[in-house]
Design a protein that fits this description.
By secondary structure, the protein is mostly helical. The protein is 75% helix and 0% strand. It is built from 15 helices and no strands. The longest helix is centred in the last third of the chain and has 44 residues, at 249-292. The termini are close together.
């Protein structure tokens, strides 16, 4: 039976396990690294070596194209700590604290030099149309609240995702500013990694997939990565409320509304995904046939969710590189 690799990826549990492993390794590293930076006094060289090895392993063997956002999130926390210490004239990080970050940068450089950096046009798209990329990244940030399937099923305008992303972005900026004013050392750094990773993922998705417009950046396949942005924002905001003596009622009400909005959006998204799963399973054979025939027309390309030229080029690569049984 002819198989489409894209369909196999959706069916094959090993692909799903890799996505879960990637995110689990990212989150575990963020948590460990946050604890590492928060430690007072001399750092154990064994902890530094272990963290450095794990970071390089993730970038080179697990993270793949998501490694840019992963490394960027870690460097972003370093930047916040540097600015905070300069503003408060506080103690600076020990030199050994920068070793894991240096290893991440080197590993990412090796990954890029190996020619597996992913979409070569993403960087040029990001710089060539920065305003549009920034605009589309807001849609991406709102996609965990209202993805393209949910908006289509309920005939909501795509601007729903934009409004959700804008609210999340403003909430994250407000929370980070509050943490910065209070002092980054007063609380956990961990949610900042999640916020940074989700934000950079949204930018990279907008740069690489923005050619298809808003619908291309709010696809459900980016959910696992982009949802970390909302989780980090909720975590940091809740921590600020807990650490504030007698928090204002307005703050509590805003947090409750934000939490319920995300929860409602998750409910809608999960219910929609559950309902359309049988239809996705039925469409796989049709996708297999379209690729086996070399993508004969626009209708076949639409079925594969790609422009006609791109779909035909992909089918040709599959055939020439023997990546699928299309005989």
């Amino acid at each position: 039976r002819r198989r489409c690799p894209r369909a196999q990826r959706r069916r094959d549990p090993r692909r799903r396990r890799h996505g879960h492993l990637k995110n689990l390794s990212f989150v575990a590293y963020f948590f460990w690294h946050a604890r590492f930076l928060a430690l007072q006094g001399e750092s154990d060289w064994r902890v530094t070596a272990g963290l450095s090895f794990l970071g390089a392993f993730i970038v080179l063997l697990i993270g793949m194209g998501w490694s840019y956002a992963f490394v960027g999130a870690v460097l972003g926390v370093y930047a916040l700590l540097f600015v905070s210490s300069a503003a408060r004239r506080g103690g600076k990080l020990q030199g050994i604290k920068y070793v894991p970050a240096a290893v991440l940068v080197v590993a990412l450089a090796v990954y890029m030099s190996a020619g597996v950096s992913g979409d070569d046009g993403a960087a040029s798209n990001l710089l060539g149309s920065l305003p549009r990329t920034l605009d589309l990244s807001v849609y991406a940030l709102g996609s965990p609240w209202a993805g393209v399937e949910a908006t289509n099923a309920r005939q909501w305008p795509l601007s729903t995702a934009y409004v959700a992303g804008l609210v999340g972005l403003l909430a994250a900026a407000w929370v980070i500013w509050r943490k910065f004013r209070r002092g980054l050392s007063n609380g956990s750094l961990f949610p900042l990694y999640l916020i940074g990773y989700g934000l950079l993922t949204a930018l990279s998705v907008a740069a690489a997939r923005g050619g298809d417009g808003p619908a291309g950046v709010i696809a459900s396949r980016y959910y696992m990565d982009l949802t970390l942005f909302g989780i980090g924002t909720l975590w940091a905001w809740g921590e600020e409320i807990v650490n504030t003596e007698n928090p204002p009622k307005a703050d509590l009400a805003a947090f409750a509304c934000f939490f319920m909005a995300i929860g409602l959006g998750q409910l809608v998204a999960y219910r929609t995904e559950w309902n359309i799963t049988p239809y996705r399973a039925a469409i796989f054979p049709m996708m297999n046939e379209a690729i086996a025939k070399g993508v004969p027309d626009e209708e076949a390309a639409d079925l594969l969710q790609a422009p006609l030229a791109h779909a035909r080029a992909g089918a040709q690569v599959l055939r020439e590189e023997h990546l699928a049984n299309l005989a």
